[in-house]
Amino acid sequence: MFRFSLVSVVCLAVLDCSVPRRSIVGRAPVSPDAVAVDAETVRGKRHYARGYPAQNRDGSVNAVIEIPCGTTGKFEVDDDDGVLHWQRDRDHGGRREIDYLAFSVNYG
Question: Please, are residues 105 and 69 in contact by the beta-carbon 8 Å criterion?
Answer without folding.
Answer: yes
